[in-house]
Amino acid sequence: MKRVGQVEHAQWLYRAASRELGSIQRERANRPSPSHRDSGEGSAMTAGLSNLTRLATMTEAEDSPLYVTALAKGLSVLTAFGPSRPAMNLLELADATGLNKSTIQRSVFTLEALGYLARDGGSKRYRLTVKSLEMGTGYLQTAELVERANPFIQQLNRQTGESCNLLEPWETDMVYVARFTSHKEMPIHVPIGQRLPMYCTAAGRAYLSALPKEAASAYIERSKRTAFTAHTVTDPDALMALLQRAHTDGFSLITEEIYVGDIAVGACIVNADGQPLAAINISVPFSRWRPEQVLSDLAPQLVNTARAISSAAKGLKPAGTIKQQT
Q1: Is pLDDT at 292 greater than 60 in this prediction?
Q2: Full-prediction pTM beyond 0.70?
Q3: In the predicted model, what is the mean pLDDT of the chain?
Q4: Homologous superfamily, domain 7-54+137-312
Q5: What is the pLDDT of residues 209-231, one digit of tens each?
């Protein structure tokens, strides 16, 4: 794979990069008005809204005789663990899940018997076991998009020497599903399965920029829009303007909006119908890069890779699309 495409394409990207760089320092102060992107792509609208309607569909499913409440409660126990709660006792699990202590006790007993939970040493706290990885690795081993994208992302990683990632949407977040790390020092470690908000990440904004305005706006409105750093853009109007710029340029750049010292550029992957499937990004530290360097050097390579993956994935449908009841 060549480093950059044709001269004309590189020149166009550099002009887009210059516009992007010039806007970084102004975006928070100016608070631009929302974009008025055409929303005629029905298939892209369906793909975007299917993610948002998932929660409503899940709520409706609870009333179905096919819904297994005990299974749902057990899964909620497994998903309660995380970096801020690596080990919990029964009372802490009840607080984290909203389930009563009796239900927690039965769920924990079952999950421990099945090997998904284990006691944390001699304490009354429980931790996830390595067996719990089976569910996540099962997805990674069978996800067609991951399989098709990996060779291209690996090549991008070799070309740039920087960390290159594939992220898929889930609700209002982007989830890391493939990651090729840099051999250079990286101050930030992001594991596979990590979820980050769409509104303040390069991959998330790239994904949202491929949606019609109404769908993108719905994602932003549903997001909590926390200011993770002093540079995080949280205003809905400003975010919509940034999405319009990303839609025009073909990529999105963020600087220190979620991690201090981090620069990231993202581009969307779409299928033959123009439906966004996922996004790829390159993340680099300020210690080695400046925004103008990222835009002139990394952005063109990222966009070319996103186009190649989109071509390879043109027959795929967005993951997690909810089927309509007949």
Answers
A1: yes
A2: yes
A3: 85
A4: GAF domain (3.30.450.40)
A5: 999 999 999 999 999 999 999 99
Topology, domain 63-131: Arc Repressor Mutant, subunit A (1.10.10)
Q: For the chain, give every residue range classified as CATH 3.30.450.40.
A: 7-54+137-312
Q: Is 185 left (phi over 0), alpha (psi -120 to 50) or beta?
A: beta
Distance of CA 289 to the CA centre of its chain: 23
| pLDDT tens digits for range 78-129 | 999 998 999 999 999 999 999 999 999 999 999 999 999 999 988 999 999 9
How wide is the angle at C-alpha 238 spanned by C-alphas 237 and 239, nearest 5°?
A: 90
Q: What are phi and psi of 222, to 5 degrees?
A: -80, -15
| Tokens 């949280």, residue located | 234
CA dihedral for 281, 282, 285, 290, sign (positive or negative): negative
> What does the alpha-carbon distance between residue 81 and residue 128 come to, in Å, rounded to a whole number?
7
More confident site: 32 or 186? 186
Task: Give the H or E element holding residue 22.
Answer: helix 7-24
C-alpha to C-alpha distance for 192 and 177, rounded to whole angstroms: 6
CATH 1.10.10.10 in the chain, residue ranges: 63-131
